[in-house]
Amino acid sequence: MSYVKNYFNKEQITDISLEDVTRFFSNEKEESDKIEYKSFVTKGTENIQEKTNAILRTICALLNSEGGLIIWGAPIGKKEEGKKEKIFIGELCPVEHLYEKDQFINKITDSISPTPKGILFHSIKKDNGYVYLFEIPKSEYSPHQFGDKFFMRVDGQTKPAPYHFIEALFKKIRYPNLQAYLKLDSFIFNSKICQLSITSYFFNLSKLQNDYNLSYRISCDIGKFHGHDLLNMNNNIRYLNGGHEILKLNVKDVLHYGEPIIENSILKFDPYKLQETNWEVTIIITFGAKNSPMKMCDYKLKLAPHIKTELINQCFTEIKENQFMFEVSEKTEEEKIESRIGRKISQI
């Protein structure tokens, strides 16, 4: 989930401007388990390090929960009669201390363990201070701790995590991080041949987890795989959908960290069909292994009759790589089952 998109309707955190933040707080806002507002007000002997530690604790808590957004430099929260939570509205209270992006990211990686991934940081100048925004993803490597404590989000607040919560995080399902990538090798087009040579790369990027029995499927909308019309004696290779798909089972018994698995294929085209589609081709890779959820890579290409080999990888027009299948499916779970069994089902 993109919290920047959810709260600000922006694609990137760096797209958020001072005007966006000011407009955001023109209406009353309340904190939740997924968003935290921090104003910058000096209280007694409290120094910048103590305020920074409060941000780091919240980052740790969001990593251990569902992720979320922090706005540091928000208006001062006020209690209103009849409302349990503070209300944030009006004038921003910017942070008086300048933090560069790399400086604060280093503070995060030095203070929180295991080292978190994917945290986004954005600073916005406001008068003589700064408003800082942090987008924190739900971590696949929780539980994280700040100092000697674990934190979590409860009722819109950052609190020390109880033992049973930490134990549950340690016991949660973990799986190796498999990734796949497609490279175009060459495209031959003449009076006799019209074919595209491709290489698929598969990696296990989990340092301490092996995986087993990699399988993959590659499909092409208009190209057919070389060999689909020949006698196949390998039970682990299947050609499907009239040759538009190749399915390969148990490619590698054990997938070690960093060891690439390299698979070569050739796609053959009917040149007339290529011209009908304006030389546009779609290639989809789906893959998984014994302990890994299935992922998908979706590639759109725009081929050209006489493209030079050294320029062939410029033919990609759209790349969507290593998405979980459950993230890209537009059907509900009920629709998937009904499509498979051919009838309506009761509500799940």
Structural summary, described in words:
- With 348 residues, this protein is of the alpha+beta class.
- 27% of the residues are buried.
- The chain is elongated, with a radius of gyration of 26 Å.
- The strands form five sheets. It has a six-stranded antiparallel beta sheet with strand order 14-15-12-18-19-20. Strands 1-2-5-4 form a four-stranded mixed beta sheet. A four-stranded antiparallel beta sheet has the order 3-6-7-8.
- A hairpin with a 4-residue loop joins strand 9 and strand 10.
- The mean pLDDT is 89.
- It has helices at 3-8, 18-24, 48-64, 101-111, 163-171, 271-276, 325-328, 333-341; strands spanning 35-38, 68-72, 112-113, 120-126, 129-136, 145-146, 149-154, 157-160, 178-189, 194-204, 211-212, 215-220, 224-225, 237-240, 245-248, 254-255, 261-268, 280-289, 292-302, 316-324.
- The chain folds into two domains: 3-171, 2-Layer Sandwich (Methyltransferase, Cobalt-precorrin-4 Transmethylase, Domain 2); 178-340, Immunoglobulin-like (Sandwich), CATH 2.60.40.10.
- It is built from eight helices and 20 strands.
